[in-house]
Amino acid sequence: MSIFLLPTFLISTIEKMMNSFWWGHGGPNNRGIHWMSWEKLSMHKNHGGMGFKDLTAFNLAMLGKQGWIFLTEPDSLVSRIYKAQYFPSQSYLTSNLGHNPSYVWRSILKARFIVNGGARWCIGTCSSISILNESWLLNGGHIDGNIIGANFVRGFSVSSLMNTSSKGWNQEVIQQVFSSDIADSILRTPLLDQVREDNLIWKAAKNGLYSVKSAYRLCMEQLVDVSHLQGPVYSSGIWRLKMPPKIKNLIWRSVVGACLPVFGFKIKECNLPQIV
């Protein structure tokens, strides 16, 4: 999964096996009743799910680590090989699929949206980062190259917006060139004196380093819209109750609306906010 994008059919088969195991079955011919979709079960417990891994997102998070290596370790052997083959004059974030690409390169390129969504530049003293379409603003934001007036700064680097005497923003120039909201975002972006060269950091982790865990969380919480799958927020309190796990599981099923067969009847939903 760290170098190949698994086929959809294979991932679906594995997830069905996990789903069947979770809901249980009474024999070889009885697969049990699946009271909730796998997509909802894959939500974090804080959002009403059970926290099972979404294998597609997890696969992409693992592939994204290879793309991160291309960006942060350009002198490594694998980075040099792939750069020479697929993006000799570009970077991984701006590269194209190319002619007759290998399946490994196709797979790693599929995860680019995760790397692009979590990467952020830490600005150096003489920054060579392009002003447009690069994630250098606070919290990883960027200035779209299609905004009004983008042609005035196209081809310029971030250093052209900084003071020449000290490491700080040239407020007068920024406010003249950009709209008030963009100018405010630029001025709120910190410039650290100890950072001498431009460094790419991973904003989803406190240490600034890419990890599959943080990339998966970023994908599920920010990069993919799963709001329609999230259950009641108060259901997360169930797991902090001091009682046997099977009882907590029973309460969770009631709260999130997972049907419960009891004495021949089906309980559709039983909200218990006063308990949790």
Describe what this molecule looks like in 3D.
- The chain is mainly alpha-helical.
- The protein has three domains: 8-114, no CATH class; 124-197, no CATH class; 232-267, no CATH class.
- The chain is 37% helix and 5% strand.
- The chain is built from ten helices and four strands.
- It has helices at residues 8-23, 38-41, 55-72, 77-86, 103-110, 112-118, 171-177, 180-187, 212-223, 245-256, and strands at residues 119-122, 199-202, 260-262, 265-267.
- α3 packs across α5 (103-110) and α7 (171-177) runs antiparallel to α8.
- The longest helix has 18 residues, at 55-72.
- It is globular.
- The chain starts with 7 loop residues before the first helix and ends in a 9-residue tail after the last strand.
- Mean pLDDT is 81; it is low at 262-276.
Please give a quick description of this structure.
With about 280 residues, this protein is mainly alpha-helical. Helix content is about 35%, strand content about 5%.
Can you tag this structure with a few keywords?
single chain, 276 residues, mainly alpha, two-stranded antiparallel sheet, two-stranded antiparallel ribbon, 4 strands, disordered C terminus
What is the fold's blueprint, element by element?
Elements: H1 8-23, H2 38-41, H3 55-72, H4 77-86, H5 103-110, H6 112-118, E1 119-122, H7 171-177, H8 180-187, E2 199-202, H9 212-223, H10 245-256, E3 260-262, E4 265-267
Antiparallel strand pairs: 1-2, 3-4
Principal-axis shape: globular
Gyration radius, to the nearest Å? 24 Å
- Unreliable runs, pLDDT <50, ≥5 residues? 262-276
Order of helices and strands: HHHHHHEHHEHHEE
Proportion in β-strands:
5-15%
- Average pLDDT confidence is 81
What share of residues is helical? 25-40%
Cross-sheet strand order for the largest sheet: 1-2
Distance between the termini: 38 Å
What is the number of strand segments?
A: 4
Q: Can you tell me the number of structural domains?
A: 3
| SS field, number of helical segments | 10
The biggest beta sheet reads: 2 strands, antiparallel
Strand-pairing-aware structural class: mainly alpha
